[in-house]
Amino acid sequence: MAAxxxxxxxxxxxxxxxRLPPRxxxxxxxxxxxxxHEGQRPPPGDWRVxxxxxxxxxxxxxxxxxxxxxxxxxxxxxxxALVGATAHDARRVMVxxxxxxxxxxxVGERLCWRPTTGELVFASGAKAFxxxxxxxxxxxxxxxxxxxxxxxGKWRRAATWNxxxxxxxxxxxxxxxxxxxxxxxxxxxxxxxxxxxVETRGRTDDNVHLPDxxxxxxxxxxxxxxxxxQELDGELIEEVQGALWSLALIEKCRTAxxxxxxxxxxxVDPPAGTLSGARGEGGGDACGIVAVARGRDDxxxxxxxxxxxxxxxxxxxxxxxACAARHGADRVVAEANQRGTMVSSVLLAADAGLPVxxxxxSRGKAARAEPVSLLYQRGRVKHAGVFEELxxxxxxxxxGGGYAGPGRSPDRxxxxxxxxxxxxxxxxxxxxxxxxx
Length: 437
What we know:
This protein has helices spanning 2-6, 10-18, 22-29, 32-35, 60-74, 87-95, 158-167, 186-192, 212-222, 226-231, 247-252, 313-327, 340-350, 365-377, 388-394, 411-424, 426-429; strands at residues 49-54, 79-84, 112-114, 119-121, 127-132, 146-150, 175-180, 197-202, 261-269, 286-295, 300-305, 308-309, 331-335, 356-359, 381-383, 433-435. It has 437 residues and is an alpha/beta fold. It has three domains: 1-30, no CATH class; 36-231, Rossmann fold; 247-435, Nucleotidyltransferase, domain 5. The strands form two sheets. The chain has an eight-stranded mixed sheet. Strands 9, 10, 11, 12, 13, 14, 15 and 16 form an eight-stranded mixed sheet that branches. The relative contact order is 0.10.
């Protein structure tokens, strides 16, 4: 009956449930396959590691607790490892949490939980043991049939995983379930590359049981941000080693409020391949156009990324002029390099009144960006909105030189660097800026 009801469309299922006696409804409420969404069901096949890599609220903890509980019911002799980022996390989330092992026990199914020793005895006689990822030595020696590892992205010691795997040798089919939001750590990469791994990916809003108000609030706050892509969409966003900017730094510098603004500069990084005049020539490089304002609080605010791609010189020059007009810019700072005269001519042809200044790049991109990155770290630059492509480029600029972000060149990031430098490091940059207006 339960299997048949699980196949019903939701409206028909609700009608059918209302017609059942209360006792049957209580039993069905405990019947997990009826309520689990597709991403919470164990994959078919002879897998060794199942990783659920998904956003917050996807239902990872419930899936883990239900899988462990089912194994415990079917294997009375099972020895199970419960490994959390810390022992406190394992107890609070995996065992005692609202979706933990105690909460998903069936009606009448008695579990014996010994928090002082971290041991959970199931009604069948199967036993689970709590471990902390902070103490890898505690897993050197114990053997298990299965393991549930929670929030692998927060684990700081790869030795914990290695010791766990070496002790996972009881029974004919040792298996591990990993439930985690993704973080670009070496251990996450190591596990994701394992032979025999099956991965389930999902987003926060894949869970139809979440309150609409929660989903809407999370989207309003984080949708489109790098943090949102990681924590809500379950996307593994690689952090570049040695990068001048990080996801955490940018999120820390985001704001929804602007003070009174006293000056606006538009930074421009012209596409080197499109200065010859042919539309689209140059392989579609972007023209970086970023507006930055300085507030009364002496903080720089990034207020628009107006960058354009695959356009003619006339088109990107018009985009620069339009951006400057929208924000009442006091100056347009453009990188000149070897084509300074042509850059200024193109910009002034679009708007003869543009207050244009040219900047000649005497240092590499990373070297120019380093002092701007320090301003971010000191809280002197904030993003008044979400600028996904620009932020991805910033996170690809590497200290000491090099670029490991999307695209061939950090055009948007360069434009930001010029604008922030003009606003906040003007004494250092004035010698390199020549007004032509």
